[in-house]
Design goal:
Blueprint lengths: L2 H7 L5 E3 L9 E3 L6 H10 L7 E4 L10 H10 L4 E8 L6 E4 L4 E5 L3 E7 L8 E2 L4 E5 L4 E4 L3 E2 L11 E8 L14 E3 L2 E5 L4 H5 L6 E2 L15
Parallel strand pairs: 1-9, 8-15
Antiparallel strand pairs: 2-10, 3-4, 4-12, 5-14, 6-10, 6-12, 7-9, 7-11, 13-14
Length: about 220
Amino acid sequence: MNIDMIRKMNNELKIMDLSDINFRQYGRVLNNIDCSLILDYAEKSICIPKKGTKYCESVKELETFSVVDDIKYEVYGGLDIEVGCCSGQNTMLTGLEYHQGSETIVAVTDCIIMVGRLQDMKDCTYESKNIESFYVKKGQVVELYTTTLHYTPCNVSENGFITLVVLLKGTNTVIEKDHNKLLTKKNKYFITHPSQEQKVKNGAIPGFVGDIPEIKLDYGTSGN
């Protein structure tokens, strides 16, 4: 489905390009990073679930590509990183997370990311009306700053989405002790929407309040 049609169907979200000045507070596009080889590998090797989403924090095969070193030094100052992947079918933002250290996304397919500012979180609560949406094109490499609230990307076609996810090593692994009520995994500070009962039952704070932001798609009229 083309982006103009998606925007027309989602006027209330105002889906912007990453070149929009509004994105500068959330991150930057790394135009000097050549990800062609790792993208080619990811397209051929990563399966998109037919329902729901799948996330793996570290994929050893992805971490062997030379571009990983470029990202390691460009974004993380040489600190150890992990390269994982997130793929699937998703059209809603049901929670928000942030990390100490940037998250770098490599778009294997076009997708939409919904983001907010950590500075606008109050007492573990964030209002969904403050979320902003951005269209990410296949091949773009995007650094999301540590103060950027984000979660699972949304697909823009019935084929789903794939992104590669780069984070400081150890992020999103099992945490041994509960030192902070927002921590659900190592270096994953997370709040969920109250409607996500299982996540609340598992200990996530239901602090993402308001209507759930959703991308409306009509594949029957997309022409794809």
